[in-house]
Specification:
The protein is of the alpha+beta class. 33% of the residues lie in helices and 13% in strands. The protein has a four-stranded antiparallel sheet with strand order 2-1-5-6.
């Protein structure tokens, strides 16, 4: 299972004061649309404690790290995130998808630049919370859209993972306790800045 937390200081590290939870066997936290279980409303205290992310109000990254890749059953390498605004009416787990695409956009500070990058990548804001992996949760049967999003997110993940693993194999990092468990957050940030400054695609 992956650990998910609200990154209140945006350092990609789960600090002791930050709300956290774990994903379930389907990869969801707080609410599982496949089983229709809302962990935050569960009468089972153990389920609430494990899988309900009790996020604080405000706009902060929600970060997921560790766990296993549902496609390969291999340990997942990388850190994923999504910038989420939480208020009184927000159900943090309902419809919230965290993917390589949302991770890339988390590292782009202004909405105009985010929109430009999304346009260049051929995606819309509606695509960000499209659950293309578990198709049973989709309201439409647009297979082509799911395949397109899947291919894009896989391209992002493989690119970032390859660069991150190469870096970690080539350099020794001092004070590792003060660093994220992997360097992918830094790679995503650099890729985001490159896409913004050069108006490029991933091809």
């Amino acid at each position: 299972r992956s650990q998910v937390f609200q990154d209140l200081n945006s350092n990609s590290i789960r600090d002791v004061f930050e709300p956290s939870a774990y994903t379930d066997s389907d990869g969801y936290f707080s609410y599982n649309p496949v089983t229709d279980v809302n962990y935050c409303e569960s009468t089972d205290a153990d389920l609430r404690e494990k899988y309900c992310l009790e996020a604080l109000e405000g706009e902060y990254p929600i970060v997921i790290t560790g766990g296993y890749d549902l496609l390969t059953d291999e340990p997942f390498y990388g850190t994923l995130s999504a910038l989420v605004t939480v208020n009184d009416s927000t159900d943090i787990g309902t419809g919230q998808i965290i993917s390589p695409l949302t991770t890339l956009l988390t590292h782009i500070p202004d909405s105009a630049s985010r929109n430009t990058v999304m346009t260049n990548l051929g995606v819309s804001s509606a695509s960000l919370n499209r659950d293309f992996f578990n198709r049973t949760t989709n309201d439409t049967t647009d297979i082509a859209a799911d395949i397109s999003l899947f291919n894009l997110t896989q391209k992002l993940h493989k690119t970032v993972s390859a660069v991150g693993q190469t870096f970690e194999e080539s350099f020794d990092v001092e004070n590792e306790d003060d660093m994220p468990r992997d360097v992918t957050s830094y790679v995503y940030n650099q890729l985001a800045q490159t896409l913004v400054s050069n108006s490029q695609t991933l091809d």
